[in-house]
Amino acid sequence: MMEAPKLLDENRLADAWADLKAHADRGLPLQPDATRMAFADPEFLLRRETRGVRFQLEMLKPDLELQAQGIDNTIVVFGSARFVSPDEALAAQAAAQVGADPQVIAEANKQLENSKFYAHAREFAHLVSRYSAGKPRSERLYIATGGGPGVMEAANRGAHESGAPTVGLNIALPHEQRPNPYITPSLSFTFHYFALRKMHFLMRAVALVAFPGGFGTLDELFEVITLVQTGKVKPVPIVLFGTAHWKRLIDLDYLVELGTISQSDLSLYTYADDPVVAWQKIQSFYQLS
Questions:
Q1: pTM
Q2: Which residues of the chain carry a pLDDT beneath 50?
Q3: What is the pLDDT of residue 11?
Q4: Region of residue 63 (left: phi > 0; alpha: psi -120 to 50; beta: else)
Q5: CA 52/CA 49 separation, integer angstroms
């Protein structure tokens, strides 16, 4: 009787990977090697010509792991990486007062004022996670963030403190942004490509809550609004947290006056200043109880 052919020579694959790891463990420089299997050849995988393969890998790795852990519906929280917790801000303010440098004191006062957003993001994640705790797995909502510090850390922290799994989609940056400590380890992913990272934000998102932030927050926010406006993704609640901030920063009524967007486009987003209100808006959108 003929043996069924092996679709994959597992021993050879394991040997190739073990050889590569042993090489790295010895601290030896890795030279290009034509005999090395393609998947175990970092020099090959990092070539310009294999960029498409890297795209696919960044798409598949988080997708498969999130599926395996039943993470189907997420609420994405964006916001500044520079905001700190109220406790940290109070400590910084006290230290600044001792030094009596007016510029340092002003900076510390600003940090303390901004720390309210950290507290609000943390509380919002508590609310979502407490709601999900009593639901069947298919109905649970999970907090997902960009995985860094600031508002992202606060939201991951709130979910973590409620005992819920929480997702971090980090990005490798020149200043070495690292995942915050509150992300569930098996749900902490690092991306090279912004495009793939943003795709993963939206693939499972049932809502977006945008806290004040910088260029990255604005980039992510406007991409989501554009995709919803053009029908590329299903409508989801988009909550801009911090009414005064957003209305001062962006005058979208002016775009209506200019004729570059429609009056109806203003209904694509809503405002909130309280975590409970932000959560209620999402509950109302989906008629959650």
A1: 0.88
A2: 1-2, 5-8
A3: 60
A4: alpha
A5: 7
